[in-house]
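Work package 3, deliverable 3.1, input record:
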Amino acid sequence: MQNYLLLLHEEPMDYSQFSPEQIQAVIEEYVAWRHKIEGEGKYVGGEKLKDEGGKHLTGGSGGLRVTDGPYTEAKEVIGGYFAISAANYDEAVETASGCPHLKYGGRIELREIEPTH
Amino acid sequence: MTPDQQVQVQESIDHLFRHHAGQMVSVLCRIFGFGRIDMVEDAVQDSLIAAMRTWPFNGIPENPTAWLIQTAKNRLIDRLRRDGRSDSADDEFDVATSASEKPVYFPDEIAEDQLRMTFACCHPSIPPDSQVALTLKIVGGFSVPEIASAYLASEEAVAKMLTRAKARLRGSGIVLDIPVADEITSRLDAVLKVLYLMFNEGYGASGGDELVRRDLCFEAIRLVDILAKHPMTASPKVHAVAALFMFQASRLPARTDHAGELVLLSDQDRSLWDRDLIGRAIRHMRLSADGIEISTFHLEAEIAAAHTLSPDYASTDWRRILECYTSLQQHHFSKIAELNRIVVLSQIDGPEAALAALEDLARLDGLKSHNLFHITRGQLLADLDRSDEAKVAFMRALDLTRNTAVRRFVESRLEKL
């Protein structure tokens, strides 16, 4: 089994018109997906990245440059990540395809994590 | 766990967030003041969105209610600080800030906050229609589109109505509290009237989204339950309303078939009726008898009980129901109740006598423009094998009906002729 990283790309959007019922439905879908892959022993972890703030750092010959971002410039940001385990890319794709993130217009970048040994 | 608790747990999971939204607005308005209700509503929405953004990754917190309230409260405090309200001259703000570390909210406390807010939403300074919408929005956590779909109104119209009602409440200097002494009776009556309208909007076949309308019924039940449990508001009349709502709602699972078609009481599969809800209704019915007043709610609850507790349609106690309708009409004459009374009359004295009573009634203003009049008339004529006349009556009913389920029902009657 290898570990895979799901990078959840999304376009920042306005949720102010979501009703409590809709919000609950979204959470329930994620919970159901996570329970399912936890039950299959494929869930490794996941974290949300904070919506506000963020910095870009560049180095090189010009010295260190720090700018605010990504929200000030990028249309698409990484909202968070999940890590799962799978036998191969096919299986990882299958697991990732059930992630509700896709249903809500998000994009998932799926990458195999290089084993350390 | 008792059946009573099971039902409540099931309902609360079904609409956890909607209920949380209503609870949070009530709790936070008590802390920050009703004058800041718009700010409070924004903070509650932000808190729900924060849950939607983080819970999928971090899991649902052990105490979701406390998490949501704390998040909303922090947003409010941040917002007030930004707005420069942090100077110590503002007492309300001090109270809010000093209370900010409080981690636990007891269910009884939250219920009491909701009770205070319900009394505010049903304040006599705003018109009854707006009272219902306002209660649904602020106490019930219903969204503007949901309220609009239940009422077949535009979202703009509902939003405008809510804004106007909130402005009126702020203008009237309303204090969030449970009325006492000489005020309690009339204010409680106003709340019961609003809950009654809310329930009927959900229960009656007036059109709109079927699921949301069902939710309206259960919201009315949830709120009357809070009234029935609080020592300051529990009264025989409140229990009568609770019994009425619960008996009626217990039959909802059998009222439509798989295709969404309406099923008449006489044809309903009684095994589908909600036994737990009927059990709760019976308990409230008993408590409603603990007084000398017989309100219209008592009479309506008794009619609902007679229908619901009868083992089958044929053994319904029609005479008792007729007595109740007659008393009801003496309390407060209503044309629609009169139509119901005539349907009961046809069970006792036959369709011919009922039809004669109906033709008598036709003289009343406006009744002939009501679809129920023509549906009742068509049904009685069909029972008397006067198919041609029945057909005319049902056609007229169709002209006056916009609700699709009712239209299909009338069409199915026409086909059977």
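Chain A touches chain B through 22 residues (CB under 8 Å).
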